Amino acid sequence: MATVTVADALADVRRRLVEGGVADAAHEARLLVGGLLKLEPAALISGGARTLTGTELALLASAVVRRLDREPVHRILGRRAFFDLVLTLSPDTLEPRPDTENLVERLIPRAQKIVADRGICRVLDLGTGTGAICLALVQAVPGVVGTGTDISPGAVETARANARLNGLADRFDAVESDWFAAIDGAYDIIVSNPPYIPSLVVEGLDDEVRRFDPRRALDGGRDGLDAYRAIASGAAGHLAPGGFVGLEIGCDQKEQVAALMGAQGFRLLEAVLDLGGNDRALIFAGA
Questions:
Q1: Record's family (predicted)?
Q2: Are strands 279-285 and 267-273 parallel, antiparallel or unpaired?
């Protein structure tokens, strides 16, 4: 049996992904081979002559089959980087997207000011999923303590596991809750990346999203606004004086979400753009 090196495997994975119609096959091949073999990018080159074991070859072969079935790379790897975190994924959680980091970036200075003024900043992350948004704030700003809620017990456990993985479990916890149902008390920042895609549109999403992200993390109801109605109606009762609400939105939902929040007395402070220059998040001040 011929030996297969890291370099051989990388070339073969890239070729198979190209033939399978995967966009950016070279980048994805590096992610898969490096991630599964636990090799840093530089080691893919410096260690290219290393011979792979049968177990490693089988692992890569299985991963390629899964990717050709349109399972996303980071689902196959089981983890994804977000801000300075490494987050594990599960079938119960949405895969965090880089665009969501923009919302975190705009909330960090507000959290820092609250900590400077009050000594602590309490963050509530509704529909926390992996815990990405809240954990990023907890990590970035000493003095932030966070609570994540999710309707999915599996997501709650994933968020807690990610807090432990990143050394943040002493300042974060997650609870099973349908929006505010199990929440008491007031928070300085309420944040959410809720489901916002209209139900009929979900059916037409790319396979990578429609088949592998949990539907209830995507489906925002008939008009995509169900979650925002629930958040708008409950946020005032849980936002501390001088606090903020940060919401990720669909690119065409700015006016509708601003109107829903405005009807409850919230004032729009900032519209945050995504990496493509589209509206992606809104930040509100309390009444």
A1: Belongs to the protein N5-glutamine methyltransferase family. PrmC subfamily.
A2: antiparallel
Q: Is pTM beyond 0.90 here?
A: yes
pLDDT digits (tens, 9 = 90+) for 51-104: 999 999 999 999 999 999 999 999 999 999 999 999 999 999 999 999 999 999
The closest alpha carbon to 273, from 102, 133, 149, belongs to 102
Binding site members for substrate: 193-196
**Strand positions, DSSP E, the chain:** 79-82, 85-88, 121-126, 144-150, 172-176, 187-192, 239-248, 267-273, 279-285
Give binding residues for S-adenosyl-L-methionine as ranges: 127-131, 150, 179, 193
| CATH fourth-level superfamily of 80-285 | Vaccinia Virus protein VP39 (3.40.50.150)
Binding-site residue positions: 127-131, 150, 179, 193-196
Domain boundaries, given as residue ranges, for the chain: 6-69, 80-285
**Residue 124 β-bridge partners:** 147, 190
Tell me: the pLDDT tens digits for 232-278?
999 999 999 999 999 999 999 999 999 999 999 999 999 999 888 99
